[in-house]
Amino acid sequence: MLNRIIPIGNFGGGGGVRCLVVLAILHLLGRPIFRLLIHYEHRLHSLYMFMKKLKNRR
Amino acid sequence: MSFEKFHAIEALIRRGREVAAGMDVVSFDLFDTLLVRRIHDPDLVKLPVARFIAARTVEAGQPWPWQKVQKLRDDIEKQHRRETAKTFVDHEACYPRVMLEALVQIFGAEKGGALLPEVTDYELRMENSMLVPRREMVAWLRDLAAAGKRIFILSDIYLPASHLEVLVDHAGFLDQVEAVISSADTFLAKASGKGYALVRDRFALAGLKWLHVGDNPVSDGLRPAEAGITALVLHDATEKHRKAVVKRYVNYSGGRPFWRGRALQQLMQPLEGENLHRSELYVEGFNFLAPLLGGFVQHIAEQCRARGIGKVFFLSREGWTFKRFWEQSIPYLFPDGRLPEIEYLYVSRMALAGASCAHQGLTRANADIAFLPPGNRDFRDLCRIFNLDVAALAPHLQRHELAVDTCLSHLHEGYVPWDKVRFYELLEDQAFQDEIKRQVAEPGEALHRYLAGAGFFAHRRVALVDIGWLGTIQRFLYEAVQHRDDCPVCHGFLFAATRGIPYPTTAGNSVEGVIYDRDRFDMAGSTILYARDLFEEACRAPHPTLNGYKLTAEGYELQFRGTDDNTGQAELQQDRYFSPLQQGVFDGAARYGAASALLGYSLPDYKPWLNCLLAGKLAFPRCREVTRIRQRHHLDDFYGRHVPKKVHVKGSRHLWDSSLWRLSLDPLLRLRYFLRHLRERIKE
């Protein structure tokens, strides 16, 4: 769409909003978040697996 | 029966040093403890190996897609693990057996067996390229070894100990270790605890105090603790974070091509001990130029294979950097070795210009090229470029009512269009052309001898690689040799092709701009035009330019420009200034090769990210970036010393020539230049 207004070139469809948000959080806040969550990784992993199972059932 | 767990490597080593003081034996897990991988998923290292085997199947005449090769390997590995589980507690597999079975199924018993060492070498080379020793952990291991502790490395993996020793040796601490033990050799692993019993018996460790360090809470924590071994487990938040970032880039790149180049850069990043303090120029070379040059040489290699090109000639002087980059990166990308020969060719526009006239004389198109640079004004400039004797040609000029100082460039004061018409008539004059051919006959012959010695005429198809921009060197080179029966088909690859003057493309001679080509509308790629000199200076070889070829009794002699004058000294100064930048480029070469081989992408995949990189760095640079990587000097004998009319000087101003205070204080400066650039490209 942008290319039709200003033809700035091929950017492969861009980064995608969701990807940009996740990567921005990972780069900017990732270090303190991981330091905090690593202590609860086992429980978080169980929760993650449970959510994945729920998602797959749907 | 418990073990201590740490979330930072510093805390573990601090505790480890206290505990180890009273220990006789210290064992380490290998992966994620002593060595970390650049990639988040170790299985991804298997993919380039599958691609390598697939390439060999093509050679064997029974092509297999690499995905099918990978699936076969996975299936065989699973089958082996199931078989092992019938006899042993641990479900282990052994790489040589798995790979041999896979290769035998693909190629048959004889050829499959013969291929195993080659495949193993490549797999270990890829592993080595992706593994980095953990600086603090290895330093502690060295201290322990120096203190007389017995050091062992234990790993649960499908690679046997002999292969692990190759990895540890590459990481540089095999000499500190008493033995490397792998579960692949005995199928007794740490996971069940039987691996510890095996080591205790084999190395007579019973009764000795033993400390084990690893990253798996079960294999490296619980099991050694059950066996009475003191265990420390590392659960490293920093590493988890790093791998989470890599994982996102790699996974996103599957669906969004934009991230492929960024994933490549992430895998190229220096880690641990590699991550030293470097100059800003080095960082620019590593982060900005290395991926661009990597994409460039990878594309050339792919094209050479596709077009059956026998030899690649990297043209001086930028070709020196391209060739070095090729040598360090391409072996990772094409391990099957089906690659053309490579050679660095000493050429220059000045050296070839004269030689190109030896057979065809001075053409109108070539004369026009000489007047493209605004510093060239009259016939004396033409003679300087084509290495002609002005005095011997003066009578011919007089015959056409011209003088040596008649202005022949519209960019200068005193230009009269009729003079240009008379000049073109002069070019039609046979006596003038004969005199030119006589003057350049010897350099022309010397060039032929040089090219013959370099094997230029020994191949049916050759590639000529240069930085850009008009393809003048290739044009002159081809014109000098095209009359020969053994003249090869020349495929030109330019880093960027600006095509300021139409290139005479024929079936036997063509050029292609790889990162940017004016014939393909690519706005982001065209931002290279912002700072062409930067790329030239950054890639330039550390030797002076070539002035010409001299015919001698023995054959030929290359005549280089002296470095004593101001131009030569300025060039040396520039080379010294940019040497950290070049070092960054070279250090990035092998990393590019390994990362790109692992991802399995090529230039079209990386291009969206490279476009973003180019536009950001060149069209919208930070003031600091301009200060850092703007070249100090860019001098070329091809450009004359005459000053053109002011109106032409004004029109050729660039963002990168702006003063720092303007770059800092004018918020719309970059946008203005960018819009002007857009307008110019659209109008082209």
From TrEMBL, chain B:
Matching InterPro entries: HAD-like_sf (IPR036412), HAD_sf (IPR023214)
Coiled coil: none
Source domain of life: Bacteria
Protein name: FMN phosphatase YigB (HAD superfamily)
Source species of the chain: Desulfoprunum benzoelyticum
Source taxonomy: Bacteria, Pseudomonadati, Thermodesulfobacteriota, Desulfobulbia, Desulfobulbales
